[in-house]
From TrEMBL:
Name used for this protein in its record: ABC transporter ATP-binding protein
Keyword Ligase attached: no
UniProt cross-references to Gene3D superfamilies, sorted A to Z: P-loop containing nucleotide triphosphate hydrolases
Transmembrane domains' residue ranges: 291-312
Pfam families xref list: TagH_C, TagH_SH3-like
Keywords, in A-Z order: ATP-binding, Membrane, Nucleotide-binding, Transmembrane, Transmembrane helix
Record-linked PROSITE patterns: ABC_TRANSPORTER_2
Domain ABC transporter: 23-243
Molecular function via GO: ATP binding
Amino acid sequence: MTQQILLRVVNATKYYYENKQQNKFKSLFKLKHLDKNIVLKNVTVHLYRGEVLGIIGDHESGKEMISKLMIKEVAPNLGKVTNKEQTFLADVTHKANDHQTLNELVIRTLSLSGVKLEDISTIQKQILSFAKLTDKGIKTCKEINETEYAQLLVSIAKYMRPTVAIFTNIIQYLDESFQKKFNEFLNEQKEYDRAAVLIDDHLHSIEKMSNYLIWLTYGQVRKEGTVNEVLGAYRDYQMKYNQIQDKNQKELYDLKWKIDKQELPVARGEGYKRMRKYQYGRIPKSIEKTILYAITFIIGAVFAAFFMFIGVGSSPTDKDVATKQVITTNSEPKYIDKSAYVLSLKHDTLLTPSSKGNKVKIPQYSFLDVTGENQSNYRLEVDNKAYISKKNNLYYFNPAGLYEDVDWSELEDYVDGSYLNYIDFYNSFMHQDHKKVSETINADKSNRFNEQMEGQNVHMVFNSDNELTGFTFDIKDKQKLIKKFNISSDTWVVKSKDGYMIADLVENKWIFIQL
């Protein structure tokens, strides 16, 4: 998997008016209260090249709307969607309104995807054969069953080879043998640096096929991260809900998220604000801008005519033009939103505040959230404040990366006893607040980001929310480790023990991170 983002949904909110007969003209000026049914609220999704992203949630989560936003079938009311890649959406629910024959659907899809006209007939036969529908080409999509339709969509995706393939509620209709074919297709997407999105309730398959997961609750992102981490939290949530017998208690379950969904957000920058006031009698900003631009244009035209009359405003010199071009060319690109992490492998890296404030010096092996990047810098978040740092100061770590799974038993021989002998005790403090951890474990020297345990060669790593997220400790028998796993780089990352083991072979250190 690469760091390139193929598709992004940023701070997207989608709602519909509950009363379709409301006066649209009045609604522009907010002179009338308009009840809205909010489907998604402030949802951000990034899809990386070489990634299979899973999206889960119950029937009220709004997860099906995500696919419509991704293919730009609908536009968000707030936020933005960026997708310039060839994208194929496979959704079994489309079958009910699909009056095309199978042959027509295949030919139309191939034509739109840029397949040469002379190749379409051959590929069409291959698609129907792969889908086990060779003798049903003249049937309409409505006439075949859901399983056959799902097989057809998977087959089209396989031979179409889209850069982005989105599958909504399709796995449940595939039998075991066809799920293997589907899994092979997903592996091809990853291998050839394309990508796929799985939006489904079939958790067992999602678990096997995805390498990153997003859980939606009432139209909001409840949790995202590694598959094991998110699925563990989701299953625990479902188990507690299913244990409730009383209907009224079930209605009150997760009440905070239900209420929060009804508050309509506005587009956010550094912070997160909601529209709690000014809902009536105020002209929208879009109309305010239009009026402002019109007035500015009229005033500008008057001044331009005046300056031309007195000889001011002559054509710029070549030097002026060259200067403007240099400024434009050398300007730093805007930050692209993303969600990942970085480690400071160097000592005493400086973070510069993105607005006013003091620089922050972070020690080696600090672990920080990435919220954006441009060509030279990362934008980071620490304690709800934004900072900037040069990329070459930090090691990029993406939990959606295709890191190798290595059983902990294979790594134990290469872990120093200072951590290994007390591993269960240390790990019991994972994800606890810094202050609470300090009540039990003493540090040689207090530090916000990384503290050495008193009398031990083990450091505690605290994340951007000031919670314990990992430890650093010595590598034992480094050369044997390198030989056993055929490591050729200075930094080696694997998945293990419900987290990530990162070997800094230059400093002879392990960094264990559990998200």
